[in-house]
Amino acid sequence: MILPIYLYGQPILRKETKEIAKDYPNLKELIENMFETMYNADGVGLAAPQIGLDIRLFIVDLEPLAEDDPQYADFKKVFINPRIVERTGNIVKMNEGCLSLPGISEAVEREEAIRIQYLDENFNSHDETYSGFFARCIQHEYDHLEATLLIDHISGIRKQLIKSKLNNMLKGKVNCHYRVKAVNKK
Hints:
Peptide Deformylase; five-stranded antiparallel beta sheet; two-stranded parallel sheet; 7 strands; 23% helix
């Protein structure tokens, strides 16, 4: 089932997330719905707060990028209760977009490598290291679990330049090809 994606201004995007247990209700169905929602929106990652849930869960699938770069083939993962335990390497600046911030793409600085501990959809434990674009995507989704948006990583000047877009989102004035849940303030 395709779920609405919560947009900038929705309180859930700034809420602390909680860990979940293996018996979380309808977890398998939730994960399937998240992948379907993400694919429908042409995304490569989606975090639970983006669909209105304050739980520590996100998904990433870089397979759509494999046509241009084969290293992304078969990189489809579920991250439950993740913790980034180490960030290393140079700081790299790269443009990022976000399904909760449609129409906004900003250069974000992130460490080039991370070590992350998490549970997969079968609650098997993992301790893995990622670098490059893999690390960037994981850090972006992880940020959602920490109540952080990509705009929190940009300068005040850049925020001023996109202020009208953000204000339009707050007013529900957004054109998207996917289902959204905007704030709709008047």
